[in-house]
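Hello,

Following up on my earlier ticket. Below are the two sequence lines again, exactly as submitted.
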Amino acid sequence: MKHLSQEQLDALVMGLGADVDESVRQHLAVCAECAARLAREAELESALYDVAGESSRGVPWTWRFALPAAAAVLIVVLAAQFLLPRKAPTTNPHLVQTAGVADPCDLGPGGCVVPPEDICRFVSVEKRAHPVL
Amino acid sequence: MDEGRCQQLSETELAARALAGSSPAWDEIVRRHSHRVLLMLLARKVPWDAAHDLVQEVWLRLVRQQREGRLKSLTLPGLAIAQAEWLAREEDRTRRRRERIAEARVAGLSDDPVDTGQEADLEERAERRERMDLVRRQLASCPPRARQIFQAVYDAGGRSHAEVARQLGISVQRVRQAVCEVRSRIRVALKEKESGGET
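Thanks for your patience. The regenerated structure is below:
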């Protein structure tokens, strides 16, 4: 018995042989092996259609809108953060108004050297602020 | 509306006309989707001639449902495939039940055998899922041009290779070659999977 060739099976499942040869039809009716091969080819062909259908459908429509919308919101938020004028950093007003809190080293050579009278003044100020000391 | 104009319609427009009872619309639907329904039946190991008869039966049932006002929507080819699957399953169940009853009578046992159809369905679905995954992976590894040709051929719409060739501006021979290459690549992967070596 001559089995069907791969080309014949391909033509059958791809619908290329619209009018199928009577001998092919008869062979399929009696040959379990070729019928099984045809079933496998038809399975493959069906899977190809299913996968192609998935690809053409692509992402669901909800995601088609939700993803760009989320991206747009993110861009607006980031742009607002970078472009809007920033508030000045919050600082302790007490420190700003207190004399001598600036870094003495910025004053130039010798700026970090504390004269002895200033040390005494510091100690007395501290004592006034915290009598328990 | 004549058949020529129906060929230009989208799936949605065609379905709307068929639901309204247009015969040319039904003819075009049958032309576009019969092959897909036939493939599903052949894949379920329904013999060639019986599969062709069942395809006719599917369309007759759908048209009858539409005429009786029982068809509210027409999603194709899904609805036709589901109908064909149901018919094939029913036929298969009837045949198996008859065989079991005959066997049980011969063996002098009860004629109420256990139906294992549900288990078989679950197995079949799992197998189909695995097969689809493999096809997806193999397709993803194909060259972009081959994927484009594949998509144009297998996308819904029942276009012939000649129509696809015209659309893409290539020869019919090139379309067939690309399709055969994709199919053969997937066939090899499926064979390897069946013989135990996953790709």
